Structures are given as structure tokens and as C-alpha cells.
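Is this the right way to post C-alpha cells for a design question? Let me know if I should format differently. Anyway, here goes:
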């Protein structure tokens, strides 16, 4: 197979994004960003493998101008920016299974991408930057194969104004300050979907969450790789004026981590970071190894605490174990919503059973016109996908009992760690794991019927 490679988007929910023609194994992103002018100069070195022979490929890149494309492994014939794509042509066919590299220079004023789910991607804050990538925001700041099944490893090198902290996925490996500019380098060693890649820039102070009594000053400039025998290193990046509120709101975060490790298995990454933006945000945001909340989420009430728990749970379900297609997003959101109820239970508040009953009663009063196993692109972030997905898991817990149910969650998290999954994968795995339970018959009404089942 050769010729024009781009008739094959991986996903009908996001048909304009992603490609099955190649895989990216590693992104090496070097960014120079100037806050006052919102000016980004980028270099992306992509290590890639062809999935079939082609003479042309497309990368997702929106709103930025490509200035140069070179390669030390293939001969580049041409490149052009076209309708949210970077189209690259080659002088010779790139053969099936060939490994090659592309070195791409680009620049511009990044901005969010507007679409079905509102504005996603690179966003300017009052004093800094936020990236909200889900589901199609990654092309707003780097050229990529933008689909959750196309996981890769990353290196981020971000240079920005002095006095600001740049936060990216993974572990901070170096920080170099030179006059008015500072360069931050992060390594994300575990495979990651493009929508989870992020850059956060702000006047942030690093605060330890494992020991709430530890002072904010005197912490290391970077977090060291994790010792598996020790608790997960947990930090918050917080504007100095919000440190007291963040300490109070996140005071039990280490307890959340302990509870989730007990239920879901070991935390999948070397560390975890909560970024507190100095702006109000509509909802918290997930990214691999970190989450982003707004100053309006700094509270100790249930609404704020459930959102903090929800984003932490995504590290297991959504980040480490990722849906291979967007129609199966309940595998992210249903699990993370159920984690809220588990934290309510573990934290000494309302039981998961009580949360489930209350949610079920509310859902009976809402329209019964959605199947959460395939909700459709426009409804994949509908709150019913979250809540009904959580109810499906609670129904499974009731049928299996706690020991078997939590054994299933731990085994699922371990078996598919850093991989991509579908709903049929989960149903088959649960059937093998939970002996004596007809998992398919139990979950089918929850996942594939519009009418809400009885609980």
C-alpha cells in the first residue's frame, strides 16, 4: 500500500485527527515561549515507525506556522500547513515498518482550538499559560499524531521568562537560569497519549503534600525518581498567595493516594503534582503525572474534594490505562467518578452505596437517551457517562463482593498498565477474573441500553 496515507483516521469521534499510517515512539519538544507577546518558537524531533508504505504523511498542527522540516533518515520533498495539518512529502516511498526521524521547526501565537467540545489546547491565563488537551487540543502547541491510542514517550525543554515555573509531564531533570530566561527540562518515560501532554507556566511555588507541615521554602528544584519502597512523592505548584489555601484544601491528598493504591494497585508514575492556577477554572483538568485545578477549587467541601480525587484517579484510569478509542471514555470517567465515591467512603464521609443510590435516583429524572458504551462524539463528556459508568462499577461490586471487585481493579490496572484498551477488553478481562458472574449480562444494560437499569 502506498500513496496518500491519510484516508485512515483512527477514530470516528475525532475524524480530523490522528493517523494509522505511522506511530510516533518519542517526541523531543524544545519550546521557547515569551509570555508578554504569547510567542512560541518550537522544535519537535519525532522518532517514528511507518505502519505501511507511503510517500506523504500528515501530522496534526493547528494555528502555528511550520518553517522547516528536515530528516537524517528519509529525504523530505516538501511540507505545507493545511487546515490543521502539517503535510510532509518524501522523495522516495517510506517503506512499511521503516524507522525514521523528522525534525520540525515551527512558530506562532498559540491559541485554543474551537470545536465540538468548546475551546481546547493552549490557553493564556491572567499571568501564565495553561494547556487543556482533551480531546483534541495537543495540535495547538506541537505537531503530533493526535489520538489516545498513539502513545509515546516525551522530553520537554521549555524556556520562558525568569520568575515563572514551567511544569510539564514526568520528572524535572534540570533547570538552568540565565539572566531573564529559565530553561526547564522534563522527561516523561512512561508512554503517554498526546491529549495528556501539557505545559503549565505560572509564578508557582513548590509545596510538598506528603508532609503538610513541611515549609514551602527549601524544597528541591526538582523531584527525584521514586523509590518504590517509599510513599509516592506528591507536590503542589501554587501561586505564593494561595499556599495557605492550597495546604488546607490538599491536606488529605496523601490519604487519597494511600486509599487509591489500596484499591487500584501501585501508583503508576514516579511522582504526582497538583498545579493550582491563579485563575478560576470551569473544571479541573487531567494530565499524565499531574492535574490542574483553579483557585476556585481550593476548598474542603465535598464538591472540591471529589474533583481532586477524580483527577488523581485518572492517573490509573485514563493515563496509565487509556481507552484505545473515544467511544470507550466511560473507562476513564466512570472509573474516576467511582473513585470519588470510594474516597467518600475511605475518608469517613458518605458510603459509596449511599452515593450510588442518590445518583441513581437523580438519573431516573434525566432523559434516557444515551448509551454510555458508545455515547457519540457530542455527548462523550455528558455527565451521565460519568455517573452511569460509576453505577455500572457499583453494580459489579455488589455482585462480586469487595475482595473480588477490588482484586479485579488491581489486576486490570496491572495487566494493561501503559497500554490501550476497549470496552470489550474490560468485559473479557472481568469475565475471566470474576468466576461465576456473567459480567456481560450484568453490564450490558448499563453500557449498551438507553433505559437506566434498576440498582
Amino acid at each position: 500500500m502506498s500513496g496518500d496515507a491519510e484516508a485512515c483516521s483512527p477514530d470516528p469521534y475525532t475524524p480530523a485527527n490522528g493517523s494509522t499510517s505511522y506511530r510516533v515512539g518519542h517526541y523531543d519538544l524544545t519550546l521557547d515561549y515569551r509570555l508578554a507577546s504569547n510567542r512560541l518558537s518550537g522544535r519537535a524531533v519525532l522518532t517514528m515507525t511507518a505502519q505501511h508504505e507511503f510517500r506523504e504523511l500528515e501530522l496534526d498542527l493547528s494555528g502555528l506556522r511550520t518553517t522547516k522540516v528536515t530528516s537524517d533518515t528519509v529525504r523530505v520533498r516538501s511540507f505545507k500547513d493545511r487546515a490543521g495539518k502539517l503535510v510532509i512529502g518524501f522523495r522516495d516511498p517510506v517503506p512499511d515498518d521503516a524507522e525514521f526521524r523528522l525534525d520540525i521547526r515551527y512558530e506562532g501565537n498559540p491559541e485554543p482550538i474551537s470545536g465540538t467540545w468548546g475551546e481546547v489546547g493552549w490557553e493564556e491565563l491572567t499571568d501564565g499559560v495553561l494547556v487543556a488537551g482533551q480531546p483534541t487540543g495537543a495540535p495547538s502547541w506541537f505537531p503530533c499524531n493526535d489520538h489516545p491510542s498513539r502513545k509515546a514517550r516525551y522530553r520537554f525543554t521549555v524556556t520562558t521568562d525568569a520568575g515563572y515555573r514551567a511544569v510539564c509531564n514526568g520528572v524535572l531533570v534540570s533547570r538552568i537560569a540565565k539572566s531573564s530566561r529559565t530553561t526547564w527540562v522534563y522527561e516523561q518515560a512512561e508512554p503517554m497519549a498526546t491529549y495528556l501532554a501539557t505545559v503549565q507556566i505560572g509564578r508557582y511555588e513548590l509545596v510538598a503534600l506528603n508532609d503538610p507541615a513541611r515549609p514551602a521554602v527549601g524544597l528541591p528544584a526538582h523531584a527525584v525518581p521514586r523509590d518504590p519502597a517509599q510513599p509516592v512523592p506528591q507536590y503542589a505548584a501554587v501561586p505564593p498567595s494561595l499556599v495557605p489555601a492550597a495546604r488546607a484544601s490538599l491536606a488529605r491528598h496523601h490519604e487519597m493516594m494511600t486509599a487509591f493504591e489500596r484499591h487500584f494497585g501501585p501508583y503508576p508514575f514516579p511522582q504526582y503534582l497538583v498545579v493550582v492556577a491563579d485563575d478560576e477554572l470551569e473544571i479541573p483538568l487531567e494530565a499524565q503525572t499531574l492535574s490542574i485545578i483553579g483557585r476556585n477549587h481550593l476548598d474542603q467541601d465535598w464538591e472540591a474534594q471529589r474533583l481532586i480525587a477524580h483527577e488523581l484517579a485518572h492517573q490509573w484510569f485514563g493515563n496509565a490505562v487509556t481507552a484505545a478509542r473515544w467511544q470507550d471514555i466511560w473507562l476513564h470517567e466512570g472509573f474516576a467518578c467511582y473513585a470519588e465515591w470510594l474516597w467518600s467512603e475511605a475518608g469517613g464521609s458518605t458510603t459509596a452505596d449511599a452515593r450510588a443510590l442518590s445518583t441513581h435516583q437523580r438519573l431516573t429524572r434525566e432523559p434516557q437517551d444515551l448509551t454510555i458504551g458508545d455515547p457519540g462524539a457530542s455527548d462523550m463528556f455528558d455527565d451521565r457517562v460519568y455517573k452511569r459508568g460509576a453505577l455500572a462499577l457499583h453494580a459489579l461490586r455488589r455482585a462480586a463482593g469487595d475482595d473480588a471487585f477490588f482484586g479485579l481493579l488491581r489486576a486490570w490496572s496491572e495487566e494493561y498498565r501503559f497500554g490501550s484498551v476497549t470496552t470489550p477488553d474490560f468485559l473479557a478481562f472481568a469475565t475471566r477474573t470474576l468466576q461465576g458472574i456473567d459480567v456481560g449480562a450484568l453490564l450490558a444494560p448499563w453500557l449498551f441500553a438507553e433505559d437506566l437499569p434498576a440498582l
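Format looks fine. Someone answered above. Worth noting: Residues 383-400 form the longest helix (18 residues). The domain at 322-448 is CATH 1.10.390.10 (Neutral Protease; domain 2).
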